[in-house]
C-alpha cells in the first residue's frame, strides 16, 4: 500500500531531475558548440567538440544517477568489461525502450568514449535535445520511401551521405558509435507485422552497421554486441523507472573483433551484402538465445 502511495512522488522526483539535468547541460553544450559555427577552423572546432563531449559525459553521469534516485536498481552485467575511454567502439544493441539510451549512457560514462547515436531526423526539432545532438555531431537520418525516391531519384543515398560526413568527424575524437539495428523499438505488434523469425527481437537492418564499418572499420578497436533485458516484459520500462519499480537491469556485453570480411561496399557488392546480412542475422540469433537464457534465469 505504501509503495503504491509513493509512486506519484517517485514519478515527480525522477522526471523533474531528468528533465532539469537534460535542459541545463543541453544548453551548456549548445553554448559551447556555437563557436563551431562562427569559427570554421578545424583545429578550433575540434577543441570545442572536446569541451562539448566533456559536458556530454557529465550528462551521462546525471542520467546514471537517475537509476539511483528513488529505487536501488541492481545491475546484472555479464561479459566483457575491459574497455577504455581512449579507443573507438561500435555498439550493436537491441531496442526495447528509450530507457535503453540511459542504460548505454550508464555503461559508457565510466569506461568508454561517449556514444553517438544514429537519430531519426524528426528528433532535431525537439527543444534543446535536437540542437544539442547536432552540436555533438550525431547523425540525423532521414529515410525516404520507395515512392519518394521514384519521384525524386536525387534522394537515393541521402542518408548514406549523411552517415559518411558524420563518420569522418568521429575520427578526430574517441567515440562509441551506437546503432539500434532493429531500426525501431520492439513491440509485439511490430514483431507480428514483420513476421520476425526471432522470438524476442525484430529483424535487424544491416545497412547502417555495414556502412559505419566501411567508413571507420579501420579505426574501430572492437564491436560491442550489447543485449539489454528488463525483467517485466509487459510493462513499459519507462513507467517502471519513473514509478520506482525498475529493480533489475540485465546487460550482456560481447566484444567482437573488426575483421576484414566485415568491411566492404554494402550497396555495390552483392556478394558482400549477402555475407554481411548472414553475419548480422547470426548475431541476432545469438542475441535471441541470450535473452531467452536471461528470462529463464529471471523466472527461476
UniProtKB/TrEMBL annotation:
<dbReference type="GO" id="GO:0016746">
    <property type="term" value="F:acyltransferase activity"/>
</dbReference>
<dbReference type="InterPro" id="IPR002123">
    <property type="entry name" value="Plipid/glycerol_acylTrfase"/>
</dbReference>
<feature type="domain" description="Phospholipid/glycerol acyltransferase">
    <location>
        <begin position="89"/>
        <end position="231"/>
    </location>
</feature>
<feature type="transmembrane region" description="Helical">
    <location>
        <begin position="12"/>
        <end position="35"/>
    </location>
</feature>
<dbReference type="Pfam" id="PF01553">
    <property type="entry name" value="Acyltransferase"/>
</dbReference>
<keyword id="KW-0012">Acyltransferase</keyword>
<keyword id="KW-0812">Transmembrane</keyword>
<keyword id="KW-0808">Transferase</keyword>
<protein>
    <submittedName>
        <fullName>1-acyl-sn-glycerol-3-phosphate acyltransferase</fullName>
    </submittedName>
</protein>
<keyword id="KW-1133">Transmembrane helix</keyword>
<keyword id="KW-0472">Membrane</keyword>
Amino acid at each position: 500500500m505504501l509503495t503504491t502511495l509513493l509512486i506519484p512522488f517517485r514519478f515527480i522526483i525522477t522526471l523533474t531531475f531528468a528533465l532539469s539535468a537534460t535542459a541545463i547541460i543541453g544548453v551548456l553544450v549548445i553554448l559551447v558548440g556555437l563557436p563551431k559555427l562562427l569559427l570554421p577552423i578545424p583545429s578550433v572546432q575540434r577543441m570545442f567538440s572536446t569541451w562539448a563531449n566533456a559536458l556530454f559525459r557529465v550528462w551521462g553521469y546525471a542520467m546514471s544517477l537517475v537509476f539511483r534516485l528513488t529505487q536501488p536498481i541492481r545491475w546484472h552485467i555479464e561479459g566483457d568489461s575491459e574497455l577504455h575511454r581512449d579507443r573507438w567502439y561500435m555498439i550493436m544493441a537491441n531496442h526495447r525502450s528509450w530507457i535503453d539510451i540511459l542504460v548505454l549512457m550508464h555503461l559508457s560514462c565510466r569506461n568508454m568514449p561517449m556514444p553517438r547515436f544514429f537519430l531519426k531526423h524528426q528528433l532535431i526539432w525537439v527543444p534543446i535535445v535536437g540542437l544539442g545532438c547536432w552540436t555533438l555531431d550525431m547523425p540525423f537520418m532521414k529515410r525516404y520511401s520507395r515512392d519518394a525516391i521514384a519521384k525524386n531519384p536525387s534522394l537515393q543515398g541521402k542518408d548514406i551521405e549523411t552517415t559518411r560526413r558524420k563518420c569522418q568527424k568521429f575520427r578526430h575524437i574517441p567515440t562509441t558509435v551506437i546503432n539500434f539495428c532493429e531500426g525501431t523499438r520492439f513491440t509485439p505488434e511490430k514483431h507480428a507485422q514483420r513476421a520476425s523469425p526471432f522470438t524476442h527481437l525484430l529483424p535487424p537492418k544491416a545497412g547502417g552497421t555495414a556502412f559505419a564499418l566501411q567508413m571507420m572499420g579501420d579505426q574501430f578497436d572492437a564491436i560491442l554486441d550489447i543485449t539489454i533485458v528488463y525483467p517485466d516484459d509487459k510493462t513499459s520500462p519507462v513507467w517502471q523507472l519513473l514509478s520506482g519499480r525498475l529493480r533489475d537491469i540485465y546487460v550482456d556485453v560481447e566484444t567482437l573483433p573488426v575483421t576484414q570480411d566485415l568491411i566492404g561496399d554494402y550497396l555495390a557488392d552483392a556478394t558482400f551484402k549477402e555475407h554481411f546480412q548472414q553475419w548480422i542475422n547470426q548475431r541476432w540469433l545469438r542475441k535471441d538465445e541470450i535473452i531467452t537464457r536471461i528470462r529463464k534465469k529471471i523466472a527461476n
